[in-house]
Design a protein that fits this description.
The protein is of the alpha/beta class. Helices cover 45% and strands 13% of the residues. α2 runs parallel beside α4 and α13 packs parallel to α14. The radius of gyration is 19 Å and the shape is globular.
Amino acid sequence: MTKRERIAAALARKPVDRPPVAFWRHVPEVDHTAAGLAEAMLAFHRRWDLDLIKIMSSGVYCVEDWGCRVAYTGSPGGAKQCTEHAVRALGDWARIKPLDPGAGALGRELEALRLIARGRGDDAPALHTVFSPLTIARKLAGDRLTDDLLADPDAVFHALDAITETVIRYTLTALQAGADGIFFASQTASREVLTVEQYLRFSAPYTRRVLEAIEGASPFTLLHVHGQDILFDEIAAFPAHAINWHDRLTAPSLGEGQRRFKGAVVGGLAEWTTLRQGPAEAIAAEVRDAVRQTGGLGLIVAPGCVLPLDTPEAHLDAVVRTVRSPS
């Protein structure tokens, strides 16, 4: 099977010659330019020959054009941070207006996407990363977001409307620019961040608007649910083809998630423990366990989130080798 055929079969829970495999890593030293990000993504893909390309834009590219200052401050996962938030007072939400999806930092990421789509040497689907509207609002405001939602929800709702409009337009533009699908990340669908009631009021309606708007345009939408104690069933109800979460850290297990979601499950690897620390035999055991839990159908072997920067290459080799020769 080609990579695209293998992914399509996994999304449809049809038999595959072997499970697709993917993992992804931030590149904070070069992701501030389109050429730097594209070259790093293509080199990583050539090195590991994976079944999909998850484009690793900085996790804060989406808020630069609204005025957040961003920098890499040493996170072991490589994620950049907002060093100065755009929303520092309740009244600042009124300044959040819809953005031009082709300009500024958003335009930079689209150019990287175009370079990646032109530069890959195979048919592996390239997924562009976008964030849920409330996740973006949290990046804009930091810890004050929940207080503002409780103090004056209408002020934040006005901004969320503008953010949602921007995300929809930007995502559709990315699909037109060469993305084969979307990696849609939520960092607020967790009881660590919101109660179920708060999530259903403050986040779910905006996520649904985005996913329903792109449903007919995106052939491959992969939901990522970040954190522990996640709201799995609430996320699994949205229109999407696959779902990824920290299945080695938080419920449900990979097999249970497969029973509660209609598409493919993406996971099986504990990126901060087994995959980082090894040994290779333990990594191989996790791969085989992921296949056992799912019966090898509707599975993309992957970590629960981004790789730690110091993950040994030998450990990644163990993943790829086991997927391709499981016995």
